[in-house]
Amino acid sequence: MPSARVGILTDQEWADNVADRLADDYGPAVCHNLGPWRADRGERDDTMVELLDRIRRHMPVGVLSNCTDALPADLEHHNITFDHVFSSASLGVDKPSPHAFRTAVDRMDIPTQRLAYFDDEPTFVHAASTTGLRAHLFTGPKDFATQMQKFGLPLGIPA
């Protein structure tokens, strides 16, 4: 997946490559079982989506994900809206590279010191902080909302 994650392959090309390798290793019948794998686009977290929608009333919100070119379609599938969407595939570099963070910041055209970054991966939080971002470990919606209230956003704490 690293090739698809940095945009060398599309998501579909990567999946086709996986299917071909599985067919080579286990026979062509295995490909009939790949439909559910490809159909699984994850689950929407309604609490986080509501918080993001509340934040967007006050300021732009972006996402930076180590993801293939499927990210925009996945967000649309789940009806999740961001003002800025950056997949590692669209940037050509993935986290924790400082270049990923700097490129996303540059494209957002918002001063680094005015941005907050949240991630559930400590390595990525550390890497983001080295680029000057106010980086925080994401531990759940309640902690996220508390942090955002410290920045002056009147969000309320989710139940």
SS summary, helix count: 9
> Could you give the order of strands across the largest sheet?
1-2
Sheet of most strands: 2 strands, parallel
Strand content is 5-15%
CATH architecture of the largest domain: 3-Layer(aba) Sandwich
What is the gyration radius calculated from CA atoms? Answer: 18 Å
Structural class: mainly alpha
| N-end to C-end Cα span | 37 Å
Task: Give, in order, the helices and strands.
Answer: HHHHEHEHHEHEH
Question: What is the topological layout?
Answer:
Elements (H helix, E strand, L loop, with lengths): L1 H4 L5 H16 L8 H5 L6 H11 L5 E4 L5 H7 L6 E4 H4 L6 H11 L7 E4 L2 H9 L3 E4 L3 H10 L9
Parallel strand pairs: 1-2, 3-4
Describe the structure.
By secondary structure, the protein is mostly helical. It has two domains: 38 residues; 105 residues, Rossmann fold, CATH 3.40.50.1000. It is 48% helix and 10% strand. The protein contains nine helices and four strands; from the N terminus they run H-H-H-H-E-H-E-H-H-E-H-E-H. The strands form two sheets. Strands 1-2 form a two-stranded parallel sheet. The longest helix has 16 residues. It is globular. The model has no long low-confidence stretch (mean pLDDT 92).
